Fold these 4 entries.
Entry 1:
Amino acid sequence: MPPGQHPAAPRPGRRPEASSAKKGLIVNSAAAFTGYTLFAPLNSTTTYLIDMKGNVTHSWPSKYTPGQAVHLLDDGSLLRCGREPNNQHFGGGGIGGRVQRIAPNGKVQWQFVYADRNHCLHHDIEPLPNGNVLMIAWEKKTRAEAIAAGLDDGQFFGEEIWPDCIIEVKPQGTTGGQIVWEWHVWNHLVQDFDEDLPNYGVVAEHPELVDLNYSRRAPVESSEELRRLRALGYIGGRSEEENEAGPGNRRPGGGPGGPDMMADWCHTNAVAYNAELDQIALSVHSFNEIWIIDHSTTTKEAAGHRGGRYGRGGDLLYRWGNPRAYGAGGAGDQQFFSQHDVRWIPEGTPGAGHLLVFNNGGGRPDGQYSSVVEIVPPVDSSGRYKLKKGQAFGPEKPCWEYAATNKQDFFSRAVSGVQRLANGNTLICSGEPGRLFEVTADGKIVWEYVNEHAGNPGMFGPGGPPGGGRRPPPPGGRPDGRRGPPDGGPGGPSGRGFGGPGPPAGSSVFRATRLALDDAGVKKLLGNKRSKRKPSNRKRS
């Protein structure tokens, strides 16, 4: 489907969110896209490939829990993020630190560790056509560096902040890699707090830059909520109990508690690559936006505002989901709420060129529920995005959206992902309950599976309260420390909080991927053991 052509609106799904009492295969109809589904349970050290009946056809063992994404490569090996156990300097949602390439027999062929005092990998990776790998990482900035860049010190009382960077790593040998390209959000800031400091400007006049003082106006996660996320396997770092063992055990960015969630300024949770456009898409949770940047730049150009195929250096080419973040809208214009995953729909697939996102929905004004969103970006044939001065990036609304009939029946506060399949169906990973299901364009569920490979839900121990970052809200006051009532309740309209009880720990999955029978990695891995193709895998006319 070419950009600009909108499919018919779907009918909402009719099946409620899966019950924890029911595991394994639930639905497998003839209309499902035949293939194999890849996923890595958050509380397990094993990655699984299952067939349409839910049977495990292959698995890869590891010493590490996921950190978080996995990819099957063309040679049948697995590219997997792992949680680095020796990292003592970072902690938080989606923490990783290590990437491994694992052969079908479980042998580690290559690994790269990027977890030290100043950096740590987290959440997602993207293998590139040239064999390199894009990775998301935190980089540490001190309180002094943040204030010198124009951060409002009235919103910040911790000792450090962790802006994100994207690195491209060229594998070398069996245990190393060379960073051959990098992009840092810290090089693309705007602030309207202090005209005597760098990055000063009118936020609304610079949609290509990121507002250093954009406030999420969401409450700090409670100790109970952090324990819940830790039990899911999503949060790493020291627990409250470990920090209470003595001052020498505390990280410099934290107070008396567990992972410093608020130091994680952007919380970028997904990275995707479009080879035709040579662009990178990012899902930026804390801003409730997706961003697109130019990958054709040199590292020097990526640090500035000129150069590259699109002439913009490393500035944002496009952003969508929350125009309030760049002064082009209000709370009522926000469309993403704590979203995860962003993918370009590939060529040859219905909706090709569109963007697909899992909208988690924490903090929605009309109630907490999840949805899957497909948008048609306003991009021309040269790969440039249209924007009228003083207005928000289009489109005004999604061209397709999936939600349950009773909207609250489909809800995952954290993690989760989505994939458009070659026959036009959509695979959805509702991550917290570990529910994987496939829907048709009109919202009918044609395949459903609930993760039954739970791992050990207690392996991470209890969590702890946040340790630093932005100031906790005063009693009855705004979470950003300013005067007036809070902008939102639990979860906030900007969507940082999660709130409410969650599913039993152990089943959660960061993301799932359906691999076709003729996928190169599947053919290499399974050979003649592959299932037979169903007629329904033909694309709809």
Entry 2:
Amino acid sequence: MFTRERAFQLLWTIVLIVSLTAVVALNRRSAPTAAMTAASGGEARHGFRLEESAARAGVTFVHQGPTFDAQLEPIMPQVAAMGASVAVADFDRDGWQDFYVTNSAEGSLNRLYRNNGDGSFADVAAAVGLADVNQAGTGVSMGAVWGDFDNDGDEDLFLYKYGRPELFRNDGGRAFVRVSERAGLPRWVNANAAIWWDYDGDGRLDLLLAGYWPEHLDLWHLQTTRIMPASFEYAENGGRKYVFHNRGDGTFEETSAALGIQSRRWTLAAAAADLSGSGYPDLFLANDYGISELFINQGGKKFVEAGRESGVGRTPKSGMNASFGDIFNDGRLSIYKTNISEPGVLVQANDLWVPKVRAAGTGVVEYENLASALGLDLGGWSWGAQFGDLNNDGALDVYLVNGYVSAGERTSYWYDFSQIAVGHSRIIGDARNWPPMRGRSLSGYQRKRMWVNDGAGRFVEVAQEVGARDTYDGRAIALADLSNRGTLDVLVANQRGPFLIYRNAVSAGRHWIAFALEGTVSNRSAIGARVEVQWAGRRQVQEVSGGSGFSAQNDRRLHYGLGATSLVDRVLIRWPSGRSQVIDRPAIDRLHQVKEPQ
């Protein structure tokens, strides 16, 4: 019987459902507003805010991951967990920074986003010949770096893969011509890192290519499942390292053995800079399943590995990033290497190697790890990270992306992972012995890190406050001034996720200065040039880089925040050729085009 009580209950049920529906709708509607309000509060406190705007700018790219031999299916999410990357350059020389992003499924297309100069981008990869590069049988893309290897003024592109590496010559920004065979590149390398550098200072860009898996492996057609690292701490059964010396005629000579760079560790990131003060670039390798390596340049003729002597290669971890920054504004470049931190399970912690003193009689700089003391140690399952002054206060900040495999939200593979990690090498080395993942997460859905440098030796994590709130599985991050307005925007490549562009809005009254360098005697890209800016009793050193972070390359124009300062006293430039240049009192709040004096 339909009583008054039942009618009353039904009425209240309807009211409750309608109310809950309204609350959900209002929450959805107000979420962006709440996020913008929080970010605005972050700007007031920290001097900048970030707003994700990729789709609005016409960038709707979503990364696709690779699928290897079916024998790896139980652990496919792990072994196929890399490939998302981003590299920034002005490929058509129109004054606006463009960027290239990689895809990693067989048959998938890479993207080259041309900057339209109005806040939007257009994908021109197919039109210029850089899209269809993941064809079956050739491997798939892991990353790319820009560099003018033929010194014609146009930025060429090197693409590294689990597969056939490719070199594309830039034909005036109109098209790219594949020159891989003529250049003398190997048939197959399973690489996760590459950089352009001029290691001998001859004015021509050389190339470092760092293998991860051994080069004899075709991950799509395995003869055996004994392909995994022999140890979680001291594995040396990974891919070889290649150094291609530029002959100046469009061809390269492989010189790694002659130079003494013969590592077979599982390298995930590489970066080069003059860390020893010799005038030549040294090489830092961040290695998975083991210790880092630091190769000191001996006048462009040989390298000496000094990881243990310097301190950076004593403790085995899971290195995934290599970037340099003058965090104390004292002319010393520190090294930031990321690792794994999962509270309650595994806390390797990230490393911030700060130069201390030069070892007596060796010329090797000793480093101390100050990551924990400065608050830069815990970043989750950390991947790419870059230094940059995001709030233009005159001190370098750090942006870091993280997250390994985001699958079942309330599941975890960590227990099984920890069991295989302590196994014997014969167990670890065979993929058949690794427990199946079965749709479980491994350090997934992690919040990113954005550490603001207060200029006094302390970093404060502010990502949520300033608007960086995504929880995708981040891999590569690059910093670039996309609008030519003196602020660094953040570009993030996510594994099996959408590409993100965080537009940066810096508070008024914060000044800046930037430099776009062009070599004449030195390599045209000016990679390796060292610039020191002096202002208000402070100084900051940066070097032009041919690739840094994890599978990433920043805007090569050097950007310096100045805070409230209205005057730069002096700029000192040391070109890769060894020539020096001084610029007194350059104008602030502008980009300076500087050509190497002949």
Entry 3:
Amino acid sequence: MRSTAGRSAPRRWPPHGASGQVLVAKLDRLSRDVRFIGGLMAQRAPFVVAELGAGVDPFMLHIYAALAEKERRMISERTRAALTARKRQGAKLGNPDQLGAGRFDGCGQHSRGRAGSPTNRSNF
């Protein structure tokens, strides 16, 4: 048997005394997938949607989940259509420097200067 000396006790989830509920402002911030939301409800995972309130009917959650999923599809279609239109206009899409302009130094600052300032390409 292993010794547990020097180790902390395993953590419990939810922590003792906590409700373990997930609180989200809107259902689509949790997921835009009906099956995922339905799975949470089937597993009785505690979550509260602030926009709908704590005592919302499960049927309404399914309706809102279906609307969120439809919105996800519509966003995808609009984005795809806009990108296709830009390509037809001759625009080059993506990062023109591949990875060069997107490099960051270790402290979260862009390695080529502050945002909005001219870049110093002599560093690379």
Entry 4:
Amino acid sequence: MVASGSYRFSLRPASGSLLFVCLAFAWMNPPPCDSFFHLSPPVSRQSSAPQQTANPPLLKHPPIRFALPRRVYTCDGGATLTVLIETNAVRVMLNGQVFNLQAVSDGAKYSDGAIVWLTDDKGEAGVLEDHSNAANTKTLAKNCRLQSTFPSRAMPLSTLAGTVTFAKRPSLPEGAILLVELRDQNGSASGPAAELAEVQIPLKGCSSPVTFELKFDRAQLPTGVRAALLASISSGTKQLFLLKDPFPIPDLANPPPIALALSPVGHGKSHPPSAATPQNPPQQGLERPLADTSQLYLWPSPALRGQSL
């Protein structure tokens, strides 16, 4: 304890005095409000540069796949052959096998050195061959006919061509027309055969034989069709010539040579007369036979011969 005048100072530290000194120092040197007395969590100080946000993750899409042009053929034996067309190449698929072939000529022949796919100029028909053994070429698919395409396109029409012959007599009148029909013989026995296609040719100035071309859409034919040709020549409602029997076409893809011979109507097979119609009808005035001829008198005059009085 040290006495100084009327004041006394104690040199022993006191907790209350120390607290007062700290509070006075804090009052004279206040700390930043946001670091001492602020109750909210401190906010980090950032530069004035704009904050760059992270790009959102890109959505994963499946890769885009472009469908190759495709042609589907039907070959002998019912085999289906599919051709995918690439640039100067094709991919031929047959019975689970795939052949990658390169173009050899202008879009008509493709080969890998052993397998050869050969088509016509329009790609409507083709044949697939195996030339692995030059001495023994094998045909893998023949008579392949185009059935469908992708992208879809108008399918070419098939054609049946042939000739029609008929007699020079009777002569053809003005307006005579030749009608050639393609019909399906699978129709019922009670009804006519279903018509598949037809062509009409005016015969003005034409003489026998006459050539014809009948076009039809093979893709529209019913399954198991039994095709046959019918032909006739008519003028107005009168039929002049007729094909007696239908001309069958077993394979429309490979038709046989067609030559139709027409016969004049009325000179064909004769039909027996009906039982209800008598063959020799009685003459007028002699419907009943004479029972008594005693009343008949014959005169020598030629003018009255055979007459009764």
